TrEMBL record:
Record-annotated membrane-spanning stretches: 34-54, 61-84, 90-108, 129-149, 155-181
Protein's name according to its UniProt entry: Protein dispatched-like
Gene3D superfamilies per the UniProt record, alphabetical: Multidrug efflux transporter AcrB transmembrane domain
GO molecular function: transmembrane transporter activity
Cellular component, GO annotation: membrane
InterPro entries: Dispatched_Hh_regulator
Length: 278
């Protein structure tokens, strides 16, 4: 190399050899990105657990179980010969979302039951959630196992990842998280109630509006009845008055009856007595 540099042109005599470092830069980025993705995912998972359970102790126990699950899963993948690459980075980043599922089910079931003893709470949580979580783990594991006979390497890796993460997650949630709750799980300590908006004003307005509608519906027939009674009374009074019409005794009886009927008909139609005297 030195001989070639000595006989090289003047502009190339002081040159040096540089290796292709793009591959190593990719490996460094994948390594740091994997660690940061795990840290950020764990923090977000902790906030979600705290928001759902409304208890920091249950959330801390659950995030501890999730961390152990991720550690065991990554150790298992390294043991079977996985190398850090783009696909492996993606699978490890998504492992936290799959690992927190069973812990969340057990934690919520532990929180909502009304037993005073923590052992009874854990027992009820296991009775309610062990079956559904086991079925969920089995179905996802079977879906991953069906990918193993494939000839495509990414399919095989995804299948191995699903089988491993589901098994480890269910075991850690059932045999680590639940016993941890039975030992130090809170009953009412640091338990916050869910936020409930004060709807008393809204209900009072609705009740007032409903009462107004009911009162109006009751008063309307009463007003109609009163107006009908007033009309009937006025009609009777007018009828009694109309029977006191002017009658000319000099007219024949038949003619007087015709005039009387005409007066009644005119009064009913026009609402006033005809002036027969003029």
């Amino acid at each position: 190399m030195q001989d070639q540099l000595s006989t090289a042109p003047h502009g190339m005599k002081n040159g040096w050899f540089v290796s292709d470092l793009e591959f190593y830069e990719l490996q460094r980025t994948l390594y740091e990105g994997t660690i940061w993705s795990i840290i950020v995912s764990m923090i977000l998972t902790l906030f979600i657990l705290a928001f759902v359970t409304l208890n920091p102790i249950i959330s801390l126990f659950a995030i501890l179980s999730v961390g152990i699950t991720i550690a065991i899963a990554v150790a298992g993948l390294i043991f079977i010969g996985w190398k850090l690459n783009v696909l492996e980075n993606i699978t490890i980043s998504t492992a936290i979302g799959l690992a927190v599922d069973f812990n969340l089910h057990y934690g919520v079931s532990y929180r909502i039951n009304t037993a005073n003893n923590r052992l009874e709470r854990v027992k009820i949580a296991l009775e309610q959630m062990s079956g559904p979580t086991l079925m969920a783990a089995l179905t996802t594991s079977v879906a991953g196992a069906l990918m193993l006979p494939s000839q495509v390497l990414p399919y095989i890796q995804i299948g191995i990842f699903l089988v491993l993460i589901m098994g480890v997650s269910w075991i850690c949630a059932t045999f680590f998280f639940c016993p941890l709750l039975s030992i130090g799980g809170p009953s009412k300590f640091l338990q916050f109630d869910s936020l409930r908006f004060n709807t008393s004003l809204l209900h009072s307005k609705k009740n007032k509006k409903l009462t107004t509608i009911v009162n109006e519906s009751i008063e309307l027939p009463i007003k109609q009845k009163k107006s009908t009674e007033i009309s009937i009374a006025e009609t009777r009074n007018n009828t009694n008055k109309e029977f006191q019409f002017h009658r000319d005794s000099s007219l024949p009886t038949f003619t007087r009856s015709i005039i009387h009927n005409a007066e009644i008909h005119y009064t009913i139609s026009n609402g006033e007595r005809p002036d027969l005297d003029s």
